[in-house]
Amino acid sequence: MMKKWFTVPLIGIMAVVLVLSGCSGNSGGNESSPSPSASPTSSPSAAPSESAPPEESAAPSEEASEFPPLPEEELKDISGEVVIWSFWELASLTTFFNTSYPNVKVNNVVMSTDEMHNKLKTVLASGKGVPDVVMIDGSRMGEFNTIEGLDDLLQQPYDFGKYQPFFADSHWQRFQSLDGTKQLSVPWTTPPGLAFYRADIMDAAGFPSDPAEFGEYIQDKDNFIYLAKTLAADKKYTYDWDTTIVNLMTSGIGYFDRDLNWLRNDDKFVAALDLAKDMKKEKLASYINFYDDQGAQALASGTTTMFYSGDFGVWDIDGKAPDTKGKWRVTNLPFGAYGGMGGASLAIPSQAKNKLAGWEYIRLNILGMDYSNKEAIQWSNPTGFLPAFDLAATEEKPLEILGGQKPLMLYKELVKNIPLNIPTPLDAKAEEIWNKMLQESIDKNVDSRTALQQIQEAVERAVSKDKEALLKKLGKS
């Protein structure tokens, strides 16, 4: 039974009026890193490593799907070898593929994320040594969406366009060319932005602990402030860095739109920066790095009572604080925000030698209800292919780490609400300036509108030549 809910008193220092429209989304900025504790440096650790086919289960539910019937496709006459580059091992996908194509040899070459993306740019430029399928992270898509070298999957023999109704529009567009005319990659993993919290600590402090009720409670800005102040008085913290508040409240908003207009200087960002400065005065951030030893200790001790991550946050708990299994739950982000935490995709280089085999590898594993999508649901991993969530009724298992919570339906709704966030080649330089100057503006208590204008001007100066060249290339100069 839940204890009394605290109501929020008037907090004089919080005079900011924030109107959140539920905006947030993939990288391009916040999506891949709403805070230092939300940006993994490698593949999602929730990716299954087992190579056995998904286990048999009960017959699927007869409940009607919200999606149209899946396209019917026949197996192709393919042979030889297919080379797959990825930044985690795809043993199970290979097993599933060879179930249908036993005579095709799969060579899965695994590299670190940075090594693979850098090497991919090199081989695309030279046309030599290219793989048949390559994994591209959503946060790195801006490095590839204005250059040549990847096939447009809307064209034959792929005809990927017929699968568009099965993906969230924001996720579909994220993997297009910058001008939106080509589909360069197939969305695969789709981790939405999530809030992980200690249900036992919330309950003991009198706050709601049920995921739906807690998620509703933290939508309200004043509720979140009261929660943060109450727990901080007991040296327990709901966020790590000053900038986390800005990144959460504006989660999912990229740096530029398709026309390379700057997106981070409006009333929403003013309100977010105002709040971050006010909360700094109250000393409500932990200033603990989630990824070092101190961060692991804070997670285990309950000092860190909330953190923000993709679904792979359950494995952070498992690895850093195994004794707290069962005490955690997961819900939506605070402040009415939605966001994404990266996400992998699979593409086919234009110079690939075995394109049809590469496409079948993608199609069988990502664009259907069996194979890797079924496995993903069994592991409670959100997938970009939305019909796969229909399998949750029979395939989803309670997560021990989350006290038996089944989060897939929550994940589905959050994935569907991730807003549009277009990656661009200018993002990396913009992000560096944004992070540095945002923290400085909080530390020095600079007027928020002034600070945001200064950041915009600094970014525009830094990217001016590249932006001009890109606009010319896009025919928009």
From TrEMBL:
Listed Low complexity bias regions: 31-62
Entry keywords, A to Z: Cell membrane, Lipoprotein, Membrane, Palmitate, Signal
Residues forming coiled coils: none
Stretch list, region Disordered: 25-70
Domain of life the protein comes from: Bacteria
Alphabetical list of SUPFAM superfamilies matching this protein: Periplasmic binding protein-like II (SSF53850)
Record keyword Lipoprotein present: yes
Database matches in InterPro entries: Bact_solute-bd_prot1, SBP
Name of the protein in question: ABC transporter substrate-binding protein
